[in-house]
Amino acid sequence: MSTYAIETEQLCKRLDGKWLVDHLDLRVPEGSIFGLIGPNGAGKTTTIRMLMGILKPTSGKAWVLSQDISEPSGTYRTRVGYVSDFSNFYPHFRAG
């Protein structure tokens, strides 16, 4: 593999007949600062959710910290922080 923190090749996500992410090729070098910007519906959140293993890509490949995101162990996720734009905790959960 390379020295990319994130790399995608033709990454796609299709849902209900609509392309949410359409053949994304992306390379983010290690040590860089990178932001995904774009209008609502551009596929930013969907891309991040695929990279974090929350959504399975329809097709294509991706690597995070040189590990294939399709690898079942997903050990790279122990080295990545992700905070969703919404929380989906059970109502009875309380911060202690």
Task: Describe this structure in a few short sentences.
It holds the Pfam family ABC_tran. The chain is mostly beta strands and 96 residues long.
Descriptors:
96 residues, mainly beta, Rossmann fold, four-stranded antiparallel β-sheet, 4 strands, 33% strand, globular, transport
Give an overview of the whole structure:
- Pfam families: ABC_tran.
- GO terms for molecular function: ATP binding; ATP hydrolysis activity.
- The structure is a single chain.
- This protein has 1 helix and 4 strands, in the order E-E-H-E-E.
- It is mainly beta.
- It has a single domain, classed as Rossmann fold.
- The longest helix has 8 residues.
- The radius of gyration is 15 Å and the shape is globular.
- The termini are far apart.
- The mean pLDDT is 91.
* Proportion in β-strands: 25-35%
Tell me the number of strands. Answer: 4
CATH architecture: 3-Layer(aba) Sandwich
Number of helices: 1
Largest β-sheet summary: 4 strands, antiparallel
Kindly provide the radius of gyration, computed on alpha-carbon positions and rounded to a whole number of angstroms: 15 Å
Low-confidence stretches: none
Shape: globular
